[in-house]
Amino acid sequence: MVIQFGVHKKVGYITNLKINKQFRGNGYGTELLKMSENTLKNYNVDKIKLCSWNSIYSNSSNLGFFKKNGYISDLKPLYYDEW
C-alpha cells in the first residue's frame, strides 16, 4: 500500500494511491485517503486536489473509488502520457 501527497501554495495534492489487488475492498484505500486528507488539513490548505490516472493497458478504473470518497472529476486530463 502506498500513498503520496504534498502541498504547494496552500493547495494539497494527492498524487498516488496504490492498494495491492489482494487487499482491495477492505477499506484500506479509504483509510489511507482520509489519513492523508487530515494530514494535509494540518498544513492549512485551502483545497485538496487529486492527480489520478489509469493505465492504458488496463480496463479497470479508479474513478468510482474516488467518487465514492467525495471527489469530483472534471474529466479534463491535464497531462497525457502515451508511451
List the helices and strands in order: EEHEH
Helical fraction:
10-25%
| SSE-based structural type | alpha+beta
User: How are the strands ordered across the major sheet?
Assistant: 1-2-3
Number of strands: 3
Strand count, sense and barrel status of the largest sheet are: 3 strands, mixed
Would you kindly provide a brief summary of this structure?
The chain is α+β, with helices and mostly antiparallel strands. Helix content is 24%, strand content 23%.
Question: What's the topology here?
Answer:
Elements (H helix, E strand, L loop, with lengths): L1 E7 L2 E8 L9 H14 L5 E4 L12 H6 L15
Parallel strand pairs: 2-3
Antiparallel strand pairs: 1-2
Model description:
- This protein has 83 residues and is an alpha+beta fold.
- Helices cover 24% and strands 23% of the residues.
- The protein is built from 2 helices and 3 strands; from the N terminus they run ββαβα.
- It has helices at 28-41, 63-68; strands spanning 2-8, 11-18, 47-50.
- The protein has a 3-stranded mixed sheet, covered by helices on one side.
- Strand 1 (2-8) and strand 2 (11-18) form a beta hairpin.
- It is globular, with a radius of gyration of 13 Å.
- The mean pLDDT is 83.
